[in-house]
Amino acid sequence: MKEFIKSEAKTETAVLVALITKTQDERKTQEYLDELEFLAETAGAVTVKRFTQRLDGPSSVTYVGKGKLEEIRSYIVAEEEAEREVGMVIFDDELSAKQLRNIEKELKVKILDRTSLILDIFAMRAQTANAKTQVELAQYRYMLPRLQRLWTHLERQGGGSGGGGGKGSVGLRGPGETQLEMDRRIILNRMSLLKQRLAEIDKQKTTQRKNRGRLIRVALVGYTNVGKSTLINLLAKSEVFAENKLFATLDTTVRKVIIENLPFLLADTVGFIRKLPTDLVESFKSTLDETREADLLVHVVDVSHPDFEEQYDVVNKTLMDLGCQDKPRLLVFNKMDAYSWTEKETDDLTPCTKENISLDQLMATWMARLGEDCIFISARERMHIEELKELLYKRVKELHVQKYPYNDFLFQQYNDEGEAD
Q: Which of 125, 207, 303, 345 has the most CB atoms less than 10 A away?
């Protein structure tokens, strides 16, 4: 009897490339590369090497300089000779069609940029018809201006109009251009169909939101992987998928939460990220509408992340782009159990850095600035969850009384003896 040889699927390996510029110093570049590595890991790739280069800005031809590209190529060749094949090279910024074509020609491996990597993760994570449609539309929007590089193997033929016409003359068009035009038309038609489908989904979502009754809507917003899904599971006693990976949640999940005698709706939205592709923001409009229509935004921040302040700014900027900057907001610093800091020596007179700030100092600073609009918790360890519930109750009740002054949803509370409070 013939035996089948079982072989394990090989994990793809990746090389990361980023620039150090006047607006992005080495520390920030390394933090961006850390995030890019996490994105690659989420997509299923293992990072084996990082390359950085100091430039005023990305080269319009090859993103990095010619010498750096040769260095990357030498590394890839050396790895291949050592039977350690490099599967892909991922660039930290979005690449143009020209850059992609030139880099692929030189490196001869799969080339991805941050946008295409995020799109790949979104495609992998999409579960519902809504999310799948939004991801597909974003992929086509990304692909359309880059179509030409897919057909470089079909050279444009020189045609003639009459006798002796050369290249560029009016007349025959080569198969490369014909195929390109066909593909462009197919993609545009498909995009039009997807937009119609999303418009229909948007109508359904709007109807669903109208049918939710007279309840205050609270939306959890924040950077990706800050613990929003864990928090909604805790508050709503539900089972929303939560994982320590980027973009674990793509679809908006809405749950009814009751604190004491106050019911309200709590929505878990898609996480934001630095350099979020504009195509994704546009495609995920119907998902982000949950944020736009919320009465209260609960901005969740991962306080244990070394660069949480920049993540905080990224979310604020995205909310501003969505027109949500004036909505009532509550700032929740999550993962306080994982916060770490380095205490300075008593004889160290150098200025304190953010690595030297204790959690108590951090809490005092932010709470002094924001007062009751700020709270520190740990959703995983259930630290300060009761205080968060009290704060939510207070804020939601204020909004509820303002918006629905004659609403009878606020039911009477009773104590253990059965007497009304």
A: 303
